[in-house]
Amino acid sequence: MMKVLLLSAMVFAAREQGAHVHGSGKASLAFDGKNGKIELHVPAESIIGFEHQAKSKADKQKKDKALAKLEEKIGEMIVLDPALKCEIKKDIFEVNQHDSHAEVEAEFNVTCEAPAAGSTITFNFSKQFPRLKKVQVDVLADGVQKSTQVLKNGDSVELK
Predict the structure, then answer these.
(1) What is the DSSP string of 74-97?
(2) In the chain, helix, strand, coil percent, each to 5?
(3) Largest CB tally within 10 Å, which of 13, 20, 49, 132?
(4) pTM for this one?
(5) Number of H helices, E strands in the chain
(6) Which residues, other chains included, contact 5 with Cβ-Cβ below 8 Å and sequence gap of 6+?
(7) Which range has the worst mean pLDDT, 13-17, 74-78, 95-99?
């Protein structure tokens, strides 16, 4: 539980620095033993394809389809070691509108049969969302803390 609170503090600090940049996002992962949390903050343009308020039927459908894809494909975007036998479930999905900008904020709960510490996590963000070119990733797993910038599919973090 303490690590998840620390993750929230890390995400809040990251949110407070810097401006919203198209094509760039932030992902934070925290694991306490076999349980974890994934938080993703990405400009809506990188996920949905636009940032304006979805008012038309076509825009609403595009937004719903993109968010459904994010939920469905999160396990292909953030690939946990298959030996851990993890299950990722959506917790919170929000599209926060700020004037002419919008951000997708998603949280997922992770439950594994083995602790994530000692494993490798591989990232494939742009495989699912080609507009997402750069993601700052922070990972905390049972005393192991790693930070990396994911610039291409297949980049990974070893939790050792």
Answers:
(1) HHHHEE--GGG--EEEEEEEEEEE
(2) 30, 40, 30
(3) 132
(4) 0.86
(5) 4, 9
(6) none
(7) 13-17
